[in-house]
Predict the structure.
Amino acid sequence: MKDRKTQIPAWLVGFRTQLSGDLYIEEEDLPFAGELLQVNEKETAWEGAIEKLLRDTGISLLVARQHYKSVSKYVNDNPLRGADGKGIKLTYLEADIESTTLVTRQLDNDSIAYKIDIKPDSPFESWLETYLQRVFGDFLCVDVSRLQHVPYGITMQGLIKSGKIRHTKDDRKRIDDRRNYVLGWSNAEKIMALEEIIADLENEIRLLRSGLMTIEKDQKNNEDTRQQLTLLLSVRDFDRINWKYHVEKIHQLEVEQHELLHNNNILALLHQKRDEVILMIEDIKLKETEKNQEIGKFKGAVESYERQLTDTEETVRQIDPNQRELYFPVIEEKLTDKNLRLSSIDRQQEQFRKLFEGDTGELKKLRHKLSTLRSLIEKKMREIKEHSKAEYSEIGESIDARAEYLQKFEKLVSEDLKRHEERFKEELNKNTINSIAVFDSQLEKHEKDIKQKIKTINQHLHEIVYNATQETYITILMDATPKKEVRLFREELKKCYTHSFSSNPEFYTEDKYEQVKKILDRFASADSIDKDWTNTVTDVRQWFEFNASERYLADDSEKEFYEGSGGKSGGQKEKLAYTILASALAYQFGLQFGEIKSRSFRFVVIDEAFGRGSDESTRYGLELFRKLNLQLLIVTPLQKLHIIEGHVNSFHFVSNKDGNNSQVSNFTKQEYDIEKAKHDSLFRHAHS
């Protein structure tokens, strides 16, 4: 409760949090009435009675009309449960806070409505005041003697009269128990009351624990006493507790035992023989144990040797006959002790392993030699792959890929590449270098086309008055890009076919091949850096930087320079964009400014038109399109309708109230004006 200010029960607050989260509504927009109402500070004597009367209203959720449908559907379609999973009861009131007009009526001075404060600056303030006056305004705060003379009243003790005959008093919970209060936008007093109750309960618990400890101590003493009494009551014969009798009896038996052991020679001899026999038996048992251990040790050794022999024979059988024939003579030669015995076979095996696998063994030398050969082979693979990236791009660089490299080598040998060297140079000249030259020519053609298009667009821009007051126009400036990669690419591309059309075969060298291969390898590369490079250098638009210049019509002198429209206001950016768009449309459709009739196609669709632009820039754009005599289909939200409506001839209004059924209403300009006039009249009447 300290984490929140409201006095509303936690299970209701938790449900509201769930409801708000599921419907994406702020919790502040769904208050409980009790969070916005509290008893006036001067009327605290009536606080308990008013809490009794307004409790159901206080825990009622206030739902503004804009959220009413979604809340009602949610409450109707879902079982209402608290955090413990149990069902809950929810009451909510539809509050029309937008159209509420404060209606005041004359109430009695003792009306309960005058004893309640409403939280100021709340959107529900006016609505709550009207609701309290309408529903509870007739309830008067009176004593019991006046109660029979009023139709609606409440006493300070909580007796409520509703109508002429109905009286109610609910004392299931104390009227002054703040734990049950729900009104107020602060729960400080409720927290203090709960803390006092908790302190009283903790004190009572300490007293009860102290009493419980005393009772448990007395209970233990009583149990000890009971056990002692039970033991005493179980004694039926005095001899059982006559300790002197038992002491005397023990003494007599000890004297009798001493007489038998020391004063009887036969018995002493028997005892001596018995001790000797016991010693002999123990010695025999000890020897028997030692022999059994030796037998077990020999049996274990025999079983171990038998298993080793079986495993060794199985291993020999599994060895490939060819390998056995190849390696067994070597092993025989390396054995230092030719007489193999089971007892020493493990030691000999370890010595033989060290001879081959030790730090100076033959196996380590072979592995080192193998590693050196692997490194040399993989180095050659990398050199081949670097030399021919395109052909070897999908082949790995590890020794595992050696089969693919050998296959490539065998193919080169079988095709006799050296013999085709002259034909390769001819193919390089006729096909590859020619293609490079054609490719460069196409790029230069695109470059000229872009320059010509910008020139044509600038001619149209010259006819558009950008600033009527100062008589300026816009022109697009086109400069070579400063990007280094574009400049280097163009230089390298030209080097590929420079002197290539000469009859001198010396120009078709390995260097020329490498120049062509370098560019083609980058084009074919799957690396992201090379892909970005390819997209940049082959897109001719990237060869230029485009800026805009505002100039005076009188002398073509520059008024302002626009670099990517950076640093300009939103309106300037929009106006500049509309101007360039209009000139581009004029170029695309082949339009002429001032032309009244034309057989050219000039239909334009603008989606989400003018949604975020200013009113001034919207008017400028529409006037510009009108001068071009364009036929426009404008798809736009309603916020710019008051500007667009003067530039269109027909309207198509699309609505979708339920979210799954779109409807289109068609209006001519005249029908639209009539419907708009009706709507404006109804709106003025509703707010008058």
Summary: Residues 265-318 form the longest helix (54 residues). Residues 364-415 form one domain. The radius of gyration is 54 Å. The first strand starts at residue 37 and ends at 39.
